[in-house]
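From the shared-data thread, chain only:
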Amino acid sequence: MNKNSIFPIICLSLVVLSIPFCIHDTDSQGYNGPSLFEGMYRGNEGRFIRSLSKGEVEIANTIIDSNKVLAASELTDYRQGIEASSWNNVMIFAEDDHPVTRSVVKGMAELLTNMLGQDEHGFSTPFYLVNVQPHKKKVRPWGVSRVVRIGTVSSDEHPMSIQDEFNAEVSIAVKDPRIPRQVNTYVPLTAGGVNELAFIVKHKITSTGKLQKDSNWANWHASVGRSIACDAIRHCWNGEVEEINWEQLDYDTELGAWRERLPRKDENSPQEFGKKKLLPHHPDHKVLTWHAGWQEPLVRGWTGSIIGVQLQTRMGSVKDTLTKWRDHLDGSGIWTFKPLQDETQLFWKYAGENLNHLQAVLSVPEDYGADIITWQTVDDYDAIYQQWLQLAIAGDAPARTLIRRYLLSKHIDPGLRNEAVALLRKKPHAGELAMIGLHAQASAEERAFADAIAYVRGVSDQLLSTKSLQQETKDRVKQWDKRPLLVRHKDYLLLFLHNHPDKATKQERFQVWSRKLQMGSQAQRFDAIDKRIAIDDVRIEFETAVVGESYDIVFK
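Structure, as tokens:
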């Protein structure tokens, strides 16, 4: 009798026994927290998972402001005039793979995409495009306006029961993806920017002992993540204040300069790369962490950082991380090192194929590692700016917006920018005067006006003089044509703005900023749609907020 080998039987048994370990957990928000998927957030479960109700648990979150969190990353306020980046196109970046981090990342994505309207812990926001970046996943080429970095600082051991008390500390930082402090020296950036802030949320969740029968870990993680995310965004709105979106340009106007510069696989497919492939190449080095891609009319790129000054190689030796990064670029054959006068900044030029113009990368060493940025500029930005200027002279409103936002860029020809100043002085609104006031040709009155704008927005605590504002801010009823307007009333400075109309409701969302003319007072922001807003002893009354009408601002 022939005996068959038992080896195939053993292999078959191992395969059968391993099947349970290969099956994906269908409860993606189970005991170990939610799963995160990179890319635009659309709601990955196909069903809404409720939070634990306020009758089931008690949640206490405490906000602790911090100057430096997340590897001592420096914070800066990059805003100029009334220009700022909106919350649209946000990258939520997970600094680690901790269950609490994943819960907060998902909760914030739900919050900013307006999915929490039915959740009692929710904080109402407009709908924003949100990209989620899980820990150690490849960053997709999408130009974002800001990066929200989230990481768990400390936490209790994961509880065995959802009735157990649980404590955690989560760090949150709102960052500008462009790192303007370094890049502004080399490329033409817009005046927009993020008022960066960082803080820690101390979280405590305690069961009341009245859990519903169907309550599970999915609901528990949803409560932890959403409550921290909601309080974090409340803090952003009240501390930094929601960024203004009063002159948002459409996609083609904002990024039209790049349309003919995208590398294409097929000349007959002009949309081959589409909106999801705005950037020309993927960063490819594992030593560093890439946070996001960013894009503006005249420049686009990637931003990231090296965390740590040393690493262990595959052979077991210890090597300086920045040295390894330099070795990679120098040995690539397509990056050429260019010494700079500032020896703290390391700069390379790119000479790869299939690209029409220069790419560059900059490494800025810090005490925690290094900030890394790579960018690409259009090669004829003076010609593009001149075209915008000609369109603005002809009355094109979006072109007028673009020449204003680049008014302070030293990379644009000074003569062209001087022409732009002359044009913007013709019937300017508050936003244009605020930018002109920062230009070298500004008059004393224009500088005072820009100073008042910075003061009322909370960008500056210094108010040089209010005498020069009398011409623009008389104590009288003002007729508002829906353009930004600065008004002085008694001892208050009021800044009136509006966002673009909601196409569904044909109404507009108004923003009123107020600051009392005394040192140390905080700027306040109020929203109004067909309602009255009281600012201490000042009362503002809006007429019906329908597109096409003018508005009376009445002080009573």
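Residues 19-29, 263-276, 544-548 have pLDDT under 50 and may be disordered.
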